[in-house]
Design brief:
Rossmann fold; two-stranded parallel sheet; 4 strands; 10% strand
């Protein structure tokens, strides 16, 4: 079973979206791991199944508010990539589907969906 399979039930009846920062992380990982063009092309094809959420002005404001919230909580070290993902999710009022819930669990205003397998 792939890591994404358990989430299919949550995505079945909706138009799944992906944050621009998640796409950047995926592409970084592919380049860093030295993926070949065949594997990169397969990833890019799979990404076409998702609506891309790019940062608009409201998302940039949400990121700034969230970064300040985290700083005031003494969590300024929170990964900026994760901060962008959380801000994008909050801005659009979406559920955050992640296999890394611990990165997001203490951020207010997020509805997190995760699978804790056997």
């Amino acid at each position: 079973m792939s890591p994404g399979e358990p989430y299919g039930v949550f995505l079945r009846d909706c138009r799944a979206s992906v944050c621009f920062m998640t796409v950047a992380q995926l592409r970084y990982g592919a380049i860093n791991a030295g993926w070949g063009s065949k594997r990169v092309d397969a990833m890019e094809q799979a990404l076409k199944n998702y609506a891309l959420l790019s940062p608009d002005d409201a998302t940039v404001w949400e990121f700034a508010r969230l970064a300040v919230e985290l700083r005031r909580q003494g969590r300024e070290q929170t990964n900026r990539d994760d901060c962008w993902i959380a801000a994008t999710t909050r801005r659009h009022g979406l559920r955050l589907v992640t296999h890394n819930a611990r990165h997001f669990q203490s951020i207010a205003g997020l509805s997190i969906v995760t699978f804790q397998g056997p």
